[in-house]
Design a protein that fits this description.
Main location: cytoplasm
Bound molecules: 2-phosphoglycolic acid
Helix content: 40-55%
Structural class: alpha/beta
Subunit structure: Homodimer.
Distance between the termini: 19 Å
Number of helices: 10
Organism: Candidatus Zambryskibacteria bacterium RIFCSPHIGHO2_02_38_10.5
Pathway: Carbohydrate biosynthesis; gluconeogenesis; Carbohydrate degradation; glycolysis; D-glyceraldehyde 3-phosphate from glycerone phosphate: step 1/1
Order of helices and strands: EHEHEHEHHEHEHEHEHH
Number of strands: 8
Protein name: Triosephosphate isomerase
Strand order of the largest sheet: 1-2-3-4-5-6-7-8
Radius of gyration: 17 Å
Length: about 250
């Protein structure tokens, strides 16, 4: 079984407004992360800031994109390809975030993006999660379906370039995270899904949780939720809090 470092991903979404702010945030985070022992940090700024932040990459800090297009080049106005991102020095790509799925990104498109990302040598952070946490547990089969179709044609060998980020949509951008016990239940279910599909130990693929992660709940979520890291939206923009979370997780 593989022993991973914990992974903390900051998804900045469409923030901050200026390059100066983005640089300032990155410098502060990088300063702290020099001393990290058990944690790896991935910053996912908007595309426009990637180039200026490239020099901030270090042993502990990687850069990620929030999306990538699956065709490598051509007449695709407004798109940025995974091939371009990879050539540029980006290491991670968030794929299938619920905010993109809500704009019509289907499982099929998500799968194409996962394949392109992995094929271009980067790590795909495949986001899955239910919109409604129904009483009958139907969300389990939905998450399974998102994983199976998201990873279609991804070989067992390529799984080391896959991270699964479980983000219940109802918790993303909301005021309440999922209960750690429920996260643990889902983490076990995802591991079983991967074991059934690939015959691997579930722990061989890193599973993250995302959705209202804060300084206050990050420890409980990580320990009691049995996840290998966190995908953080709003709290990653408050640099002081983000650094605090990283410190807490590194101390586990
Ligand atoms: P949030 O967002 O931490 O603001 O809930 C998480 C995400 O969208 O990845």
């Amino acid at each position: 079984m593989r022993k991973f470092k914990k992974l903390i991903i900051g998804n900045w979404k469409m923030n901050p407004l200026t390059l100066e702010e983005a640089k300032e945030m990155t410098t502060r985070i990088k300063r702290l992360t020099k001393s990290l022992k058990k944690t790896k940090v991935v910053l996912c700024p908007p595309f426009i800031f990637l180039s200026a932040l490239l020099s901030s990459k270090s042993r502990a800090v990687s850069l990620g994109a929030q999306d990538a297009f699956y065709q490598s080049a051509g007449p695709y106005t407004g798109e940025v390809s995974s091939t371009q991102l990879s050539a540029f020095g980006v290491d991670y790509v968030i794929v299938g975030h619920s905010e993109r799925r809500s704009h019509g990104e289907s499982d099929d498109i998500v799968n194409k993006k996962v394949k392109a990302t992995v094929g271009d040598g980067m790590t795909a952070v495949l986001c899955v999660g239910e919109k409604v946490h129904d009483q009958h547990g139907e969300y389990f089969s939905l998450v399974k379906q998102q994983i199976i179709s998201g990873l279609k044609d991804i070989s067992k060998k390529s799984l080391d370039r896959i991270v699964i980020a479980y983000e219940p949509v109802w918790a993303v951008g909301a005021k309440e995270a999922m209960r750690p016990a429920d996260i643990a239940e889902m983490a076990i279910f995802i591991k079983k899904t991967l074991r059934d599909a690939y015959g691997i130990f579930g722990d061989d693929v890193r599973i993250l949780y995302g959705g209202d992660v804060t300084v206050g709940n990050c420890l409980e979520i990580t320990l009691d939720g049995h996840v290998g890291g966190l995908l953080i939206g709003r709290e990653s923009l408050k640099v002081k809090n983000f650094i605090e979370i990283i410190k807490i997780i590194d101390s586990i």
